[in-house]
Amino acid sequence: MYEIASLFSMSDFNSSITSVQNQRVKRMVALQQKSSERRKSGLFVVEGRRELRHCIEGGYEVETVYLCPEVLREFGSDESLPTIPKGTMVIEVTREVYEKMAYRGGTEGIMAEVRCRPQTLDDLHLPDNPLIVVLESVEKPGNVGAILRSADASGVDAVVVCDPLTDLYNPNLIRSSVGAFFSVPCVACSSEACIAYLKSHSISILTAQLQDSELYYDTDMRSGTAIVMGTEATGLTDQWRKAADAHIRIPMLGRVDSLNVSVSAAVLMYEAVRQRQEGR
């Protein structure tokens, strides 16, 4: 392993890129913008110091790191920089090239191509009485990322995205998770497969819905529990409502009849934490 600070000498880089027409630059842009390119290549992009550090610590295979020393220096101390595994290709890029490749501004002068690591339900290693969050067809990658962030903070054992409308390697999802994507097991599958898995593992299915439901804090979440959330626009499908062991709701005391799905998920996750820590 070596510190990125040691790479500021030109001789320490594997190569350099100065043209935005370089094929590597074009591939990075395609990986940022197109899910089809991510699926075809098996690669996705990670931007930023914190995100890349969590990615490496999570055991993901980093193919190539792109560094812009000029931008790196603008973001201060080297102490927050991740440590790159030996053997990883490291390429220096100019500011113009970096800004062309970057999905968002202010990503601290470091980004990487990372190998996708798809997981299935069978890959999950759950403890006794697991806590799982299930998302049915949540369409905004930023919401999925925010839920992953709350899942990490509350000790959720896995997040399952059913019938996904966005791929899990969307750059908005990675960014909004602030690295939690790499610490919380995350699986994409069909609703049918997820329901069968939960039933076979005796995990209670609690569906968040306004109709025919009880207040969430009146529902026991101390045993194996899956909290199931739907879209803000249409909620959950009948398939999940019928499969549920209990229907739960968050009281809505104002004029607006729903919360952002990531906020609702956080409320329910921390109720499970409270019950498990206090014995309800």
In brief, what are we looking at here?
34% of the residues lie in helices and 21% in strands.
In words, what does this structure look like?
The chain is an alpha/beta fold and 280 residues long. The protein has 10 helices and 14 strands. The chain has helices at 23-33, 35-41, 49-57, 69-74, 95-101, 141-154, 171-176, 191-200, 238-243, 261-278; strands at 2-3, 15-17, 43-47, 62-67, 83-84, 89-93, 110-115, 131-136, 158-162, 186-189, 204-208, 214-215, 225-229, 246-249. Helix 7 links the parallel strand 9 and strand 10. Mean pLDDT is 90; it is low at 1-5 and 7-11.
Distance between the termini: 46 Å
Strand percentage: 15-25%
Query: Order of strands side by side in the largest beta sheet?
Result: 10-9-8-13-11-14-12
Mean pLDDT over the residues: 90
Rg over CA atoms, rounded to whole Å, is 21 Å
Sketch the topology as an H/E string, one letter per element: EEHHEHEHEEHEEHEHEHEEEHEH
What is the approximate shape?
A: elongated
Main β-sheet: number of strands, strand sense, barrel status?
A: 7 strands, parallel
Share in helix: 25-40%
How would you classify the helix and strand content by structural class?
alpha/beta
Uncertain regions: pLDDT < 50 for 5+ in a row? 1-5, 7-11
**Number of discrete helical segments:** 10
Beta strands, count:
14
